[in-house]
Structure formats: structure tokens, C-alpha cells
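Quick question, first post here. What does this chain look like in 3D?
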Amino acid sequence: MSNDIEINWDLFGFGLSIALMILLLVFIVISYALWRRSIDLENRLNLQRKEMESRQEDMIDRVRTDERLLAEQRVDQVKANGLSVVVHPFVNTEADKGIFIRSTKVEVGYKYQLFVQGFPCFEPHTVVLESTVHKEVDQQMLDLLKQKAEGAAEAAVLVPSGGAAKTAITIAKTIMKLART
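> Answer (accepted):
Ran it through. C-alpha cells below.
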């Protein structure tokens, strides 16, 4: 008696193929189950996110309503006491039209005033938020002044007495200094 076991390799190969196919089938089933679980978890997460957003919006609306009611109560208390503050926006514009320079100053802000039972108390308080100044040189006026100064200087030079020429030159120099600045 020999202990030789005969192995049928065809049968062994077939059995191995069946085992691998079963293993592959088990792997596919497990993969599908995990995929379905991830889809279910993602759907639950989206549902929870929507519920959370809905609750958050409800809370915001509730807080807004509460704050609005509280503000209305405060206004009613102030009206009962007769105190109120009136606020008005304002824009002030000041223009200064000089001979050589035009400037415009613009102030933007608001004014508020305290009222007791509809009557003003104190002077309105002014708050300037922004102030700008725009200056512009009148070049035409400067050119006209230069022409007049040159004409006066030429006329003074033509006068026979020397005193007028000195005065004209002094005036012309002064005007030229003003024109340069």
C-alpha cells in the first residue's frame, strides 16, 4: 500500500476557479453594500443639513421678530415719556468766488435734535461725516491781469518823468509774483 494520493488537476483547477468566483462574488456584494451605505449616509447628511438650515432660518426669523417687538416697545416707552430724537441728513455747500481763485466746500452729514412732547429742546447737533474742498484758479482773470499790468508798465515807461516808470515796474513785479503763485 502506498500513500500516494492522486490529484486530479483538472478537478483541482475547476474547484479553484469556483472558489475564486465565489470570493469575487462576495467581494462585489460587500462593495455594493458599502456603496449603498455611503449613499444612504450622504442622503441622511443632506437631509440633516437641510433640517439644520431650516431651524437656523426659523431661529433668525424668531430673533428678528423678538428684536422688532422689543424696539417697538422701546419706541412706545419713549413716546409715553414724550422724548424723541429727529435725525435729518444734510449737505452744506459754500462757494467763495474770489478774483483769482474759486473754492467750493461741501460738507455731508446729519443733524439730530431732541424733542420733548413734540417741542425742540436745545439746538440741533450737527455731525459732519465728510468734508471736501475744491479750489480752482481762474486762468482767464490771471491772463487779463497780466495784460493790464504789461500795458500799465509800457504806458509808464513812455511817460517822460522817471518816477512813474519805477512805480509801474514795482507794480508789474508784484503782479508777476502773484500770478506765479
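The chain has a mean pLDDT of 82.
The chain has three domains: 8-81, 83-135, 140-180.
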